Amino acid sequence: MKTLLLTHPMPAAPFVEALHALEPQMPVLAYHPRMGEHELADVQAVLGWRFPEGVAARLPNLRWVCSVGAGVEKLLVPELATDIPVSRIVDAEQAAGIAQYVVLMALRHARGLARYEALQRERRWSRRPTGALRCRVGVLGVGAMGGAVADMLAAVGFEVQGFSRHSGMPLAAVLGASDIVVCALPLTADTTGLLNARTLALMPRGSYLINIARGAHVVETDLIEAVRSGHLSGAALDVQEREPMPTDDPLWAVDGITITPHIAAQSSAMTIAAQFIQGWRCLQRGELPAHRVDRSKGY
Ligand code: GLV
After folding, report:
1. Which residue of 91, 125, 201, 264 has the lowest C-beta tally within 10 Å?
2. Quick check: is 290 in a domain?
3. pTM above 0.90, yes or no
């Protein structure tokens, strides 16, 4: 049963190494654009981040697609037959790393660290001491990531309100009652552009956005306008619409917006390989792999 690696922009070599460390005989092919139909015809499983255009339609014997990450949206291309199971990696270590990133950015904002960094550059010793913070955080998306984020935020003293499409409180109410909003949603047709001029306007004046999900959740021009106008005090964006972000992207130069290059947390190649091999063995026994997404929902 041949596996095709579609890990670009990550190199395939660490995945090949990790898969072979655990399953030395596993037939693995790293994708390259000149692959012929005969090579692709043998592929039964894909481990990847995104489908290059047209590749899903060239895999007549495909039986399973597994994402190297928690998100699957770049693999759910229209050419992928609807009956192919798609799984994702569920990794508590990655969720903890993402939660740490969110707590870091939330505390940095809530404790006014940027102000003290600016004062230090001016050699000014100017105090504005506080007691313990009282700050409300709305976490959009309460799955494996959002749940871990909410728990860690609560553990350091934030008042946390989760939002999902099944939670009691409507989105507008959560946004309106949050000093910080964290986006931890899956990217689907319903959530693309969810944070736009209209919804950002529902957040209180001076509030802050943290995005650890996908750049396309946010209409970036609307966010820039909300920050420049002073309605939002800023944002921490680990993900952006264009990755890697080109040097001329306007997001780089907005006061109050912190950009990090999709580093909040990533599963190790070994964790990904171990989960993939479990799924691969399930498939060989005629069973369905774990951590499947609901293809109709997109997550
Ligand atoms: C990272 O963005 C992931 O989906 O795991």
Report:
1. 125
2. no
3. yes
